[in-house]
Amino acid sequence: MKPKLKLWGRATSYNVQKVAWIVEELGLECSRMDAGGAFGGLDDPEYIAMNPNKRVPTLVDGDQVLWESNAICRYLARAYDAQSALAHETLIADAQADMWMEWFQNNVYTNSIALFHQTVKLPPSQRSASTREAVLDGLTNALRIFDAALSGRKFILGDQLSLGDIPTGSFLYRYFTLEIERPPLPNLERYYDELKTRQAYKDAVMVDYSSLRGLD
Fold it and tell me: Alpha-carbon distance 28 to 42, whole Å?
């Protein structure tokens, strides 16, 4: 029997998209409730009782509540990956997937959010060219590491999608659609083209974010 999951968070949230991608890859039954951003609701007592951080996503599985997107991703894959869609065949592969999840959080996430603000969320009058250049440089340096690791590989650990692909892969839709100058990263570009062929990626990650655009 498929689990009846409930996911709180707006479809345009990067962190929600990571979870939604796994839900789609695993074919899980999951109801999503809009929350956060223009939808609000994060200050409601009922929501705070589930997630005192007042952030998204929040996942409810029966009487269990989880927050922090990477933790939710790991839980879903380990609890419900019956078809081995995201399976790690060895303990070292499991650790390497975790390594790449943590790598994104520690080396890419902050600059990715800052770049999105400087190119989309902030009104043009509040954007800083110097800030944008600095975060883009930092982001590019990090992505060169991922690009090099993809050499000779279809996905970050080899021929099969894994948890290690989820954080960086989820970000790439924004990266390749932002109005920025991108250096040649051939392995990353090929990798993104591969992700775009997956229906789960299309449905969960390739979400129009024009509603987030800041205006003067």
Answer: 25
